[in-house]
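Internal ticket #5521
Category: modeling
Description: The requester needs a full-assembly model to guide mutagenesis choices. All entity lines are attached below as received. Residue total reported by intake: 724.
Assigned to: D.W.
Attached entities:
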Amino acid sequence: MITPLVMLVDDEAPFVETMTKRLKKRDLDVIAAFSGREALEILNKNQNIDIVILDVKMPGMDGIETLKEIRARFPLVEVIMLTAHATVESAIEGMKLGAFDYLMKPCDMGQLIGKVNEAVRKKRGHEEKIREAHVKEILTKRGF
Amino acid sequence: MSNNTQLTEHYYRSLNRNIILIIFFVSIIPLIIVSSTIYYQFRASYHEKVYDHLRELVDSHTRNIDHFLQEKLGDIRFLAASYGLDKLQDEAFLQSRLAALQKSYGQDFVDLGVINADGEQIAYAGRFKLARADYSDADWFRRAIDREYYISDVFLGLRGIPHFIVTVRSSGKDGYWILRATIDFVAFTTLVENIRLGQTGFAFILNNRGEFQTTPIRGPSTDMMASKKIYTEFLAKSTDSPDQVHIAVKAVSSRHKNIYIAAFLKKGDWLLVYQQRMAEAFVDLNRTFTITTILMVIGFVGITIMAFTLSKTVVRRVAKADSEKQLMRKTVVESGKMASVGELAAGIAHEINNPVAIMVEEAGWLGDLMEDVDLGEGENRAEFERAIGQIQTQGKRCKEITHKLLSFARKTDTTVEDVEINELLEELVALSSQRAKYSMVEIRTDFQENLPTLRVSTAELQQVFFNLINNAIDAMDHDGGTLTISSRQIDNDLVVTVSDTGKGIPEANLDRIFDPFFTTKPVGKGTGLGLSICYGIIEKLGGKLEVESAVEKGTTFSVTIPLQSNTGGQDTQVSNGLNS
């Protein structure tokens, strides 16, 4: 199984840095982004990103708006929301908009890794189905 | 507190008085104008009618009397001209003539006499034994001998009873001679006495010396005395306008007024006077006046009663509405306070959460590294693990505290103290800076140094500015902008302005933003209480909260607080209300 590629999006640089180190140590490839806009740019360039861990409260383009954009432009990418208590409502809103799950900050590393793995499995499943569909389509076209 | 109650009472009293006065004037003035105009018009036309009637009466009687006198004179002239002195000297013939006259005219003619130029009566016919009477000294004779014909005033003469005579002068061979007829005084008087109206209207005749020619039978003597002057005034007009009918009104006593109508007779020699009590002549008018007055008084009383009841009802309702409003405002202030405390708590919770999250992550990272690094076995390793574990435990505890803070609400303290406004604003800016950062808002401050302190409640003032700053940041959300907070002392006021470069407030909403429950935020996002609470607080301090806004340019709220705000009493009252 290919190492999942995770993008961590939060405006708090120290948080992002430490998390990156910790996730890498747990055999994940991690890319850091410090705003919603930056995250979208990276997604544009890098088609291999599997999971986005997204903080809800960010200056400028916030987590919800970023989520909407991601769902619209990269529907296969799974999103895990990070939120403080005060923004649980926005996390719920995020779930409705198609986020994979949400976690409260500060979060338990074990929980986070578990969610990431679940999300990766879901994504891989999706990709598998798409591939099968492609194969079927090609076979149909060729008359088999 | 008592001062406040007094003020309120004074306000309601003056409101009551104003309502009464307004109702009163609005109703009474038209009532008076309409009634008096109608009454005045009626009075004018009624006066005219009465005067016309009386003038007509006097005029026609004057002509009647003149006609009567002319007729008698004509008879005598006819007698003198057709028979001459010779025949008339014969007393038997004269007697037959008198009998003929009396036959045609009743008892109008009393007697006839022929007088020579010396004043000696040379022939007489009648019931009095007056033959050979000497009239040479009589006043009437001297006048009669000077003119062709003459009608005398009333006099007693030789016979001792009032009478008047008609004479005709003719010339014979021995010079002038006079034919004289005595006219029955009673018959003549009846002509005048027939002019009667009501209880007090009567007529009489005066000669030009003011002597009565007929008996004014029914006039009260006091009236006659009081009227003397009027008669004289009328008589004075005999030369100017003998043909006119004259009218005068005079008070004869404190209670009565008389109307006088007068016309001249006998080419200005005599004056026919008709007089009547004013009250009687205008009895209908007086009745109308009484009715009008009664109606006006009834209207007046009705309006007064209505004004008092209505104003009482209105003032009672206003007072009730006011006290309800007062209660409502207290409730609104309190609930608004709770809301903003909640908001504040939410902000703090989030801000603390982030650093704590980082700390916990760092501790976790240390834990991760520990697994790889060989620190050897024993106490030290255990201590490291315990310490990292402790950091994570305490981090979780912090998280719990912030979460509790969110659901924690406490009553805000409204104790009055000395407040440094700049310090207070500085604190609020620090509190809001995180939020501002998220909305990409830059906060600028422009404080005047060494401002005097305010004696207010810190919590309340914080609430006001926290609200204004929050609103300003909301107005610039997403697009970012500049929030400028300035403090200035202008005369005896402290002026703090909070300006943003946000969306601005549309004109239509501008005068409603201070209304309770007015909000443009989606349901559940805003209570619509923030600004109305701010308004209430600033107003309580005796200050002003004003707003200026241009759409797409920004909004400026300015808070003016008097430096010597004397609101201690009210503050105590409010805080008592909140704490109880």
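Resolution: model delivered.
Comment from assignee: Confidence is low (pLDDT under 50) at residues 407-412, 566-580 of chain B.
Ticket closed.
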